[in-house]
Amino acid sequence: MNDILKQYLMNKYGNENPEQKLQSDYEEQKVNPWLAFASGVGQSMQGKAPDLTWVDKQNKQAYENTVGKLEQDKKDAVIDFQANQDFKKSKQEDDLNSKLNDLNSVETKSYQTLASKMMPNQDFSKMSGQQIKTQLPTLEKLYKIDSDKQDRAIALKEKNEARALKSHELNSTRSKQLGVYNNGLRAEEQYLKATNNANEYDPTGSGQWIDNSSWAPNLIKNDKAIEAQAAQDAWIESFLRDASGAAIGKNEREDYKKIYFPQPGDTTDVVANKKALRNQKMESAAQGAGLSDVKISQNENTKFPKQVRKGNQVTTVMNEQELKEAMEEGWN
Predict the structure, then answer these.
(1) pLDDT at residue 302 above 50?
(2) Which of 242, 228, 227 is nearest to 289 (CA)?
């Protein structure tokens, strides 16, 4: 039996276990089997056919008076219990509606607070909780529309902030690369100017072993050799330290010089190839800086900086205008 129903029956009939009590009463009111047996024997001794229908009648009546009555009480109790629950529910609803119609009730204040959160620009202080409750579906739709709008605005703001951050990072990277490119380009110009006259200093000349050495003091070196070697160091520091991010050691710097700059005994083709390698480095830095129109290594006839010669002299031109002027003066 349901615990709630059992409690209800106990309260109604004043018995903690009505089923057990009525079952016991039923057993007491039933016809004793021995009595039924004795009645049958007595009728037989009188020459009558045994008639025990009275036993069934009495037992049936005993059941109706006890267990059967309990079953009916259960049914009645269920009806009463349900009616009582419905009454309670109805009363609770009436009480709630009464509170919702009261502008000063806690329930109305709660609805006013909820509505104000949904529509902060409207005044709900003069509306009852019941009035707000009837408008809740509409308020919820408007609130969802407004929330979606705010979510989209937030998402757009975050997207713009991310784009701005990315742009800042890109500009920072480009600014760094532009510095690398400009420093390296100046070093390249200095190197080309220091080596433009083979009579003054020729980095490929095997006879200039003091000028080309890294161990000889500057005091006994050719000025042009000092300028060229300083330019080499600056160029390597600009382009190759940027790639590694670490300071370049002396031995590593000497190795880089052999890769990118002319050495004693290098042929013209080797010198041109090393120049092309330097051009590629400079072009890469230019592109990283956003200078997409700089094509240093694009074509031998149009790349700048460019070396031009006149006899034993070598000079460097940086653009088409300087090249044009140099050619007019006999450089080629």
Answers:
(1) no
(2) 242
